[in-house]
Structure formats: structure tokens, C-alpha cells
Design brief:
Elements: H1 2-45, H2 57-67, H3 73-85
Helix pairs in contact: 1-2, 2-3
């Protein structure tokens, strides 16, 4: 019985580590998907058509920063277009 408990104690971390990493990857993928969806909706509001899945994480973050700024809508649109065009 002790050997079984010892074996289980040794194997548990080996099984748990990949599951934890997989859960973290899923959380990151969901966050990226939400960021892409929010960006797509915001771009549509500006009349900007682009495939947000082709944008880098840096571009998505920069666009989010512009959207959160206090600038005028016209200035935001111009800055967003510059971000998209500067791949």
C-alpha cells in the first residue's frame, strides 16, 4: 500500500504540470480571441475593414491603447489606420 501511495505521489506532479500549462494556454487563447473580437467591433465602428487575425499582438495592443485614449474620433481613426498599415 505504501508503494502505491508513493507511486501516486511521484506521478501526480508529472500529470498535473501539463494540464496546468494547457489550461494557461487556453486562457491566453481566449483572451486573444476576446481582444480580436473587441478590436474587430471597434474597427467596424470606424468603418475600417481588416482581418484582425492578421494583426500582431503588438498591433492589437496599440489599437486598444488608441481606442482608450481621450483623442478625437477622427484622430483615433487616423492613428489606427497607421498602426494597421505599419505591419
Amino acid at each position: 500500500m505504501r508503494k502505491l501511495i508513493l507511486a501516486a505521489a511521484l506521478v501526480a506532479p508529472l500529470v498535473a504540470a501539463p494540464l496546468t500549462a494547457m489550461a494557461q494556454d487556453m486562457d491566453e487563447m481566449q483572451a486573444l480571441t476576446m481582444l480580436e473580437a473587441n478590436t474587430k467591433n471597434a474597427l467596424e465602428g470606424f468603418g475600417i475593414e481588416t482581418d484582425v487575425q492578421t494583426l500582431s499582438i503588438g498591433q492589437l495592443g496599440a489599437i486598444h491603447g488608441v481606442l482608450s485614449s481621450e483623442e478625437s474620433e477622427g484622430r483615433k481613426g487616423a492613428r489606427i489606420m497607421a498602426i494597421i498599415n505599419n505591419n
